[in-house]
Amino acid sequence: MNISEEKNNQPLAELILDNICEGVFTITPDKTITTFNRVAEEITGIPRDVAIGQKCYDIFRSSICQLDCALEESITTGRRIMDRAVEILTNAGEKIPILIRASALRDDQDQIIGGVETFQDISGLKKLNDHVQEWFPRHGIIGASPALRRSLDFLKDVAESDSNVLIEGESGVGKELFAKAVHRLSHRSTGPVVVVNCGALPETLLESELFGYVKGAFTDARRDHPGRLAAAEGGTLFLDEIGEMSPALQVKLLRVLDQSEYTPLGAVKPIKADIRFIAATHRNLKKMMLAGTFREDLFYRLNVARMFIPPLRDRREDIPLLADYFINRYNLSKNRSIESLTPESLNLLMAYQFPGNVRELLNIIEYAFILCRNQMIQPEHLPPEVQQGGSGYPATPGEPSGSLRAKEQELMIQALKRHGNNRAAAAKELGLSRTTLWRRMKLAGLPSAHNDG
Q: Domain 314-444: which CATH class?
């Protein structure tokens, strides 16, 4: 029997649908279900023979069924709907979050004859996000090192003021994450937070994007275009890589900071601005001031509250926490079941200098997922530059090679003491699973017979 023949009396198209890892169903224009694959059965708990012939809103009982149906929108407009998160009610009465994609279904004459929707259960991703918010209440900024905690303690004080903020740190440390945390903890949290990368746009385009323009301001200005300043009104404007902004544009930004107003290109009257500014850079702005490439007055207007985000190599205690979090994240998004790093792999990561910081660690874990085919990430699954970095912990002036391991051990000991040797509570504080904490305790030679709560 070849692939074009039916297998076990099941049509090939149905076989294909049943082997797709997302739920799939199709409907007629009047919302009658005509196809319902195996994963759709598993997610909803409703058998295919029950679902087919029913109205989709009777099967899914979603919050969008009556008022904002994605399939109805696709059928009506002919446009695809991508990655819309909704909740459905399963056959067991349980509410679960799903991510849907919908598209009109067309025949060979390009006529719309119904709709097709794919969906996936994202409860695991939601639980992971809830986990981060619960275990790392400081807005998903993961870490337990003293260096990071000092930055986080200052973050709350900065957020409560309405002062401008300058965030400094190397590329990849998470400056945007900190900026958004400042916004969310501020009294402007209900307003917008708008991000502008000053190094990603040429000067002329950056100016029009920031300030906006009015119709007729230049040849192609056929209508008014509000800029990012207008979009951030009442909220926060995050200027990433402020060190890349040209001196001419720095002058115009300084006026906004000094007078709380700006003028769109081609406009006559200025517009009042109620905006908090957060700027970030990986460059040394003081050196740029001395070189004449960054204005001193702009520096001091932005540098009201200065935050420094330490590089990952200066907070190595956070590497195991971040690695575990990224492993859990990729397990859920890639439907894998990798447990952890082997001790040898963790030693290599702890010895690595991480020039790309947290972003690089994320990429390293993703790379390992490509090569790893078992439950543990081995050294050979890591990128060559990590493997070649040497094993164990790097010795630095004044710090013996085993001190980083000792710091990790001390973190575990202190967490266990704070929670009366309750391993579950200590693991929760450290952002680890109980199994991972137990394994780390065993590797460190700590007594593992603690109360699990």
A: mainly alpha
